[in-house]
Amino acid sequence: MNQTRLFLLFAWLMVATLLWMEWNKEQVATPAPVTATSTTAGANPAATAPGAIPAAPAVAGARPTSAVAPAATGALVTVHTDVLDVTLDGGQMLQADLPTFADLDDPSRPVRLFSTDPQHYFTAQSGWVSTIAGAAPTHLSGFVPAGPQRAYTLAPGAPAVEVPFLWQGANGVTIRRTYTFTRGAYTVTVRDDVANAGASPWQGTVYRQLARTMPEAPKGGFTSGRVFAFQGAAWFSPADKAYDKLAFAKYGKDDPLKKAVKGGWIAFLQHHFFAAWIPQPGDASEFATATASGVGGTNYLIRELGPTLAVAPGGRASTVARLWVGPKSVEQIAAQNVPGLERAVDFSTYATMATLAGWLYAVLAWLHGYIGNWGWSIIGLVVLIKLVLLPMANVQYRSMAKMRRLQPKLAQLKERHGEDRQKFQMATMELYRKEKVNPMGGCLPLLVQMPIFLALYWMLGESVELRHAPWIGWIHDLTARDPYFVLPAINAGVMFLTQKLTPNAGMDPAQAKMMQFMPLVFAVMFAFFPSGLVLYWVTNGLLTLSQQWYFLRKYGEPAKKA
């Protein structure tokens, strides 16, 4: 197989891979029919059997999109920090805005992660279940503000702000829930302190869950230039180091999750942002997924049930968890020191590809620390990759130079054997053996570049740090497509010039014609890719073209006519 055929093979392989990813996006974006499970069938706490977890409340009609659904107690509390604006009712975080991130479709508004709008319903919920009816609060009722204050703001210079709620049971048991918001942090600490002032022992199990409707597909679809990102449930078990996901379209098709775990985390992932419950490392709980009829239609749930607390009369106990509400920031996620939480930055389902993408991001972030511009950092990353691959490139271009010198002889063989392809191939292999030329000598760099390209595709599309990050001039967002298609056009020109320097001896006319269309095919495809990825590919192509021009003249003169 000569160099041109090899290039053609990998070009079509990349096209097929990207088309498969686009098809997979359509599959995930299509809701699947789901059936409510028995654990979430009840929406009314009063009608729920003791020990059962109530689902999100159902609504008969649509609510105004700007309104926040009232809590069962009617008492809402707002909290404002430097990175979060949220609304709570004690059992639920009903609304969460991220003021430092602008909405892609309306930059005048912040990103809203949690919402009670039926079309975008998404909440974090936590309550208790007990074997005794009415002996524990649910996320729907029970918790009330512990004081008269209904609005909290993180004071200038203050490290944190605490928001308390209280539940008082008829049996003398009280649960004080405290939400702690820390400056600059997207994690909210949720602590439940149980005090038993009654005459009988009390036992209860805490549950924490996320509930949401099917998220809408990005406006514009593939033509918007936004890279597809996984949307659905994800969880991690430290014991077996298992990271798993369940797309929304798979709810009701695949078996629901039901797994005993110590520590770990559960989450709902979406492009650039996610929400997650993170229990304490030693807490034993059960992870589960379910569906229910609720606000906006079908609600998809992922929950962790546990730990169970037994409190004797006069005794006290507590349980703590963290709630992440924010962006997929690699740096802030790493600061949490939670095993496996880095996988929430969903570079890839496959651990090897995710690890490669993580390494590439680490280098990119290191470059950005010196350069201060993500676009130039991408160019710097390409330069570093080409330096690492330089020894293999040397082998590749030496092989290509030898192939160019053999073109007159190959042309003679083609003319001599005419249409007898078998004899032509045998004569070609004999020529390679006699001239000590390895036609596969240039394969390795191409084999290495394919996984790097795919890892970069996910890394550049998934990195929230590049969201709305400009490069120069007309490129104002490296995660969006090139608005004037300048980079795709440059890439087409670079591919055309590269083809002119690539040996094509022995190629049949059909393959030659196909190769002529490849720059156009890639130009059209890259027109809808994120500009950061196209910038990488253009820079890589320019450096490859320069290397090829230099090495071909270093190792041999251009082939003469036969």
From TrEMBL:
InterPro entries: Membr_insert_YidC (IPR019998), Membr_insert_YidC_N (IPR028053), YidC/ALB3/OXA1/COX18 (IPR001708), YidC/Oxa/ALB_C (IPR028055), YidC_ALB_C (IPR047196), YidC_periplasmic_sf (IPR038221). The keyword Transport applies. Gene3D superfamilies: 2.70.98.90. Residues 374-551 form the Membrane insertase YidC/Oxa/ALB C-terminal domain. GO terms for molecular function: membrane insertase activity. Residues 77-354 form the Membrane insertase YidC N-terminal domain. It holds the Pfam family 60KD_IMP. One of its GO terms (biological process) is protein transport. The chain crosses the membrane at residues 374-395, 442-460, 517-538. Keywords: Cell membrane, Chaperone, Membrane, Protein transport, Transmembrane, Transmembrane helix, Transport. It comes from the Bacteria. It is found in: Cell inner membrane; Cell membrane. It is a multi-pass membrane protein. Belongs to the OXA1/ALB3/YidC family. Type 1 subfamily. This is Membrane protein insertase YidC. It comes from Cognatilysobacter lacus. The lineage of its organism: Bacteria, Pseudomonadati, Pseudomonadota, Gammaproteobacteria, Lysobacterales. The gene is yidC.
